[in-house]
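hey m, so remember when u said the tokens were messed up on ur end? i reran from scratch. heres the input so u can diff it against urs
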Amino acid sequence: MLGCPASFSRRSDLRRHVDTLHTPRFDCPVAFCARKWAYGFIREERLLEHLRTYHHWDIPTKQQIKDDETLINSLRENISSLNGDKNSLGDTISSLGGKIGEVEAENGGLRKRIKNLEETIEELETKNKWLERRVLVLCGVVTDVMRLGDEAAQPSE
């Protein structure tokens, strides 16, 4: 990689080095965002945080989804405990049931957004794999050219 001082005697060590340090796996899907290719993200959660903060996408965090599911389960438990005395608690049960429906509907929309993002990320990963292979080929070509240059520079005896 340009600007990287690391050198390796085995091609597999170079490939591992490039894969782990120089190959972003998650590019920003926004059209003119600079966080693509070499400036992409190695970790998915960093891409999602970038989309939330830089592009102001309304993407729930894993904790928010977990909190929503906890709230839904809590509301369901409340409804089942209130079913024993329907006469005095009927209004409360109706109110909680409506809130569960609202939260479930909102959670369903969030899940759809997450699924769309995951599909986008999968598409980007596929494109990135192709680019990784191209980079490795180009690294091999550069290495071969440098070796040929070194051999040509050495005086023959």
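this time it looks ok to me. The first helix runs from residue 11 to 22. if urs says something different then somethings off w ur setup not the seq
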